[in-house]
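Please review the protein record below. Let me know how this chain folds according to its tokens.
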Amino acid sequence: MSSISRFFAVVVISGSALLMGCDASKAELDSTKQQLQTITTERDGLKTQLDSANQQMTSLKQQVADLQAKAAAAAAAAAAPPAPMVEEKKDKKGAKHMAAKPAATPAAAPAVAPSTGPATETRKGRGHF
């Protein structure tokens, strides 16, 4: 065989191999494109779920803060001493019954820090020596 016919034989064989190879890689390319589209759709769905979860978390944090403020207010109200009860004076005729009424609430007294040292109040009365 001459060198020209060998050259043509090599070109024909190479060309057919390339055409066969292109078909296999095209199928692989199409498969990869389909996977990419599927994964992109899944990613977009997960982003939507993440945004929704973040909004819920923000709402729940606000609710927790509100509940903590209400609990602190309730604890402060429970820690305050109750108002002393004042009895009504009887009329001259004595017709009214003794009824307890709450005294007017004084202005809030400044908070005093608890003492850690010895007691400073004096003890009075029977049985205190």
